[in-house]
Amino acid sequence: MAMERVMDIPSDNVYAYALSKTLTKVASPLTVGLYSECHNRINMVLKNIEVHMNLEAKRREQKNTKGQKPRSIKPSISDLLSLILRLLFYRPVWTDQNQNRKNIRYLFVRFSAWHFAGSDFLWAGLVMQLCKALQKSFGKLQLGLFRIAQHNEEKDAEKKKIEDTFKDWRSKKVCCIPVWALIIMGFIGTLLILIPLIIYGFPKLKDITEVENGYEESHGYGVLEGFAIAILGVPAAGALRFTFLLLKNLIFNQDLKIRQGLDNQKVSQQLGLMHEVRKEMRLLCCFIHFMEIFERRKIRVVLEITNLDRCTPKKIVGVLDAINILLSDEESPFISLLAVDPEVLVRQLDQAEDCLSKTDSYDFLDRIITLPFTVPPLCDASKCRVFKNIVRGQSEIPEEFPLEDTGALGPPSTLLSVEDEYSVKYSKAEKEQAAPLIAKKGKNYTFTTVKLSQEEVDTLIESAFYCILSRDKSNLQTYLSGDTMSMRRVINSIRVTIIIMETLKLEPPPPEKIAAWVVLVDCWPCRLSWILQCVEDDQQRAEIDEHDGTFCAADHTETLWDVFRRNSLELCMFGNEVENFLERDGDPELFEIFLRKDFKFTVGELERFKLCTVNLNYCIKNELARIRGSRRLKRARRNAFNSLSARTVMNMKTEDICQELSRLSFPEKYTQTVRENFLDGRTILLSDPKDLRQVLQMTLGEWMTFKIHFLGVMPHSQPNVAESRLKATHSGVLVCPSDHGQ
């Protein structure tokens, strides 16, 4: 049953749940950009993600009772012996059955880049941390046996071949005879030879040798003894060789190899080290695939990379390259979570040698990130909770649910809502004190809430995908980027958006609208960020007007295209300051068709989607807010001198200019000059001030009055208007008059 309630920005636990739910459904390899300005929030989201993913793995094992039961993660003695026998004498077989198993195991590896910041090659520390985690989880002995008895570089480099069989294992054979049978036969044959020799000894053969003083008997080993030694020596030599290789791999593991390669400058400065590390990463992938067959479940390694934004630009680029090169093979079982502050990371990349501009930095990240996930800023209620915890000396952002809460294995509706959290975490008095923050006017909106089943959620996701695939349903294919990485981001973002809506119990819009919104965010992040900032500023202005007694409620039926068109002149005036961000957007004409004709999103729909939009990088919006704020400081200076705004001057005709000059008590000759030269507002704003003064022939005092009133107050250090505009035009960005007079 649907109901109405006021919705605030959800807690971090909701976003952690939505992301974890998505990670359990998408295929690896996957690289997630987990963006937030607060490192403590990132750590808490990561911790919640681990809990939710482990609970999801446990829920799947409880649900999937058909077929063979998965082995225990902590193997018993019998399982360990079985694993050793399979490592020595069998090879795994890839079948449709074992490749489509529902049971899964997640192995979490935390890599704090700040701890390895002193290394010349930060990515090498990442690989070593990964190797140590796998050795700790599966055991050095097992990994060493796999390297000796299973790994074949040529065969393992090939793609897995799916066979039509029901057997998961096939014995190794030599001359069509299983290796284990040969070993048993050899062992039995050895016993048949050794036992009689031990009991009866070797037969003595007489060898008569002639010497000067007569004859002497000598006893020696004959042909039989040599044959026996040869038979017994071959398996003994093989066993010694196997033991030697095993001890070597246990002692000289991959960590030591990487360190030796880094110490050797001739190796580390060439492709050889990266190539060797890549081969070792391939070996680890093959070992994980082997363990998947043995444990009868999928295994995914979740690599959590934190504090990367604290490192130098060169090392950041090295780690990102390692993620892209080492961990992104087609059959790689790795899920990389890049948890950083996006603004700091972009600034660092701007200073790197390989990234020449902000556009290059964003493009560099887009080539790596498969799913961008931005944790929205804290709401007022969450800020109060965090502040109270700090005052009490507690953790800034405490855990929002028990780590061993078995109830979390139920459906997503068991997650606490915002209002439920208050009832649990606060007393009645505290709840009454915090209640106004939830229903604060101007920031929160009343939405219809419904409860969806898991089947309805899956159907909604499939319907959203179908809206993109079907030409009859919509024309979203026109707006979809041809980049496959962008398509992956759209698919993953649709899943996250719908899961967040389901978790918050929001009534979902039509699937076509959901798919269109995700495509809009992916194709035009700068223009959408500008719309978000304008709507946010209008809401804040409405609150100020309410305080002044002139409150005018925001129009939630206004379309986003109308908002953009109303504020496009201001965006155009920013010129070079937003050029790098606008270059990230797609075709501007398609943007107009998208919002004006095909998908007429309104401000009310924007407020609904804003709660669920996590694939938008908010650092663009923050930069636009900073630029807009600096412009408003200039407007404040303009108002202090009673200057006209650039928008007002832009719309003034020739007669309007003359009337304004008459109001300022300028001589009649100047109004006549304005009429003779057909000077209107656009001409005044676009002209070079030097040329304009020469045409008007004003004195210095008259010119300063004219310039302050029509062009505003310009500092001496500000560049020439015409030169700045000409430079922006040559750069390929269509700009409107710069707001120099503001």
What key phrases describe this protein's structure?
34 helices, 5-stranded parallel sheet, 742 residues, two-stranded antiparallel sheet, 9% strand, DNA polymerase, domain 1, alpha/beta, 58% helix, disordered C terminus
Can you put this structure into words, describing what you see?
This protein has 742 residues and is α/β, with parallel strands linked by helices. Among the domains are: 524-621, no CATH class; 641-730, Transcription Factor, Ets-1 (DNA polymerase, domain 1), CATH 1.10.150.50. The strands form five sheets. A five-stranded parallel sheet has the order 4-10-11-2-12, sandwiched between helices. A two-stranded antiparallel ribbon has the order 1-13. It starts with a strand and ends in a 12-residue tail after the last helix. The relative contact order is 0.10.
What is the makeup of the main sheet? 5 strands, parallel
Q: Order of strands side by side in the largest beta sheet?
A: 4-10-11-2-12
- What global shape is seen? elongated
Strand segment count: 13
Number of helices: 34
- The radius of gyration over CA amounts to 36 Å
Cα separation of the termini: 53 Å
Low-confidence stretches: 1-7, 205-221, 267-271, 401-444, 715-742
Structural class: alpha/beta
Task: Give the strand content.
Answer: 5-15%
Mean pLDDT over all positions: 75
- Helical percentage: 55-70%
